[in-house]
Design goal:
With 544 residues, the chain is mainly alpha-helical. The chain is built from 28 helices and no strands.
Amino acid sequence: MAAGVLEAARDAYARRAWTRADHLFRRAAEAAPLIPADVERLAVAAYMLGFDDRRIDALAQAHEGHLRDGDRLGAVRVAFWLVVHLALCGEIGRATGWRGRAHRLVEPGDGDCPERGYLASADSLCSMVAGDWAAMRAAAAEAVAVGERFGDRDLVALGLIDLGRAMIEEGDVADGLGALDEAMLAAAADELSPVATGFVYCSVIEGCHLTYELERAGEWTLALTEWCEQQPDLVPFTGTCLIHRAEILQVRGALDEAFAHARRARERLAERRGARAAGEACYRCGEILRIRGDLAGAERAFADARRYGREPHPGLALIRLAQGRVDAACAAIRSALEAARPIDRARLLPAHVEIALAAGDLDGARASCEEIEDLARRNGRTMLLACAAGARGAVELAAGDARGAVPPLRRATRLWLELDAPYEAACARVLIAQACRSSGDGETADLELRAAHEGFAGMGLDPARAGSGSGPGGSGAADPGHGLTPRELQVLRRLATGESNKAIAAWLGVSRRTVDRHVSNLYAKLRVSSRAAATAWAYEHELV
């Protein structure tokens, strides 16, 4: 009877029926102690069902079982997976302890063996946690070499994702993506163990997002979705998959569907150990709410993201800008840039350009624009090129060169449309309309503004409140009876011509803080959330 239960458990494991495998292995264990290999299978089933603590306990039990059987090298492999899971749960001390134990178990007399590759892979992971990319790259390359010598596909794939990540972090983007693609081929061909497959999928997609390789990210996210759907009771990897799908859908302009995915990801990930990914899900929810104009809801989501360890910028800084709190926005984005790793700066720099321009800091905006352009030249990805062109156009417009702003803004629009990113394309068109009107080409300005409005409307956003990087307002039509005071109308008209709050204050002869307050008040009355939204509203109602 016990033998039959054990065979059924192994069969369920092979079919990736994780709930049944978990149940049957535990039943078999009640009848007789499991051999270490079956305890490892039980650990995998528990992990695939989301039971992280049971996974770690089972791996520790399998480790002891291998040692009792005199299988030191088997114990090393189990220790490697303990390092991986504990590190991902944020328990770096315990992970480091298991790594040290694994190193002591491999003796000089063992010679060249696959386990030395797993030790190198553990070293690579610990180097990543420490941010030592050179050491990570060297250890990952060693893991790949050992895996290739012994035909260990898991080891090769895990080494490749670490090698690719280290290359990307060091700026070697093309070769890094090549290593990730090679690892993904093995995962997509179902050549790897279940847990290794999930790790490869998520690591490769994360690498694509880090390098702004949107099309690759979409392709591999679809593959991950299909893999997850083949295992209905799978828990890990599904939350991460939902986050990636939400980001792709947001870029594509499917905001309702994107928000539904991000919210489901937050719900799935919130209760798991080391739920840093839950912070990313919360941030994605906040970004979508910000774009919709629900600033209060977005701020709550960003607070949740911070609680899980995800810094809520640039989104929160852009909310401060939309609220008219320009000084707070400047301080927030500046702090975020100072703390950011080089690879993360590109996500913050476009927001810094917008905030600096609102503060009248043209030099600061220009410096960030030049940094984005340099990153785009070195990276070559379409998304970064679009960000750089949009930043250049915004800076030239603010500097008073409306004609010079149009070519980069048109280039940004074209690139965003190539990426099927309607929101960003519509935002660029709002700026083109503003530049054309400033240079006396009202007819083209009207055409561009109409195209922008159609883009926003296609995403379910109110075209009368078209937004910029700070996001348009929410739903509902703008009220022609705006209730603005004469002074607020003056501020709105100057704002719509591209002047910063500092310049408006100088023109009015009042303090910058007074203008900030006027801007905040008119945003609230018009129910908009950004300068471009207010500009679009002003042109729509022929106030400029």
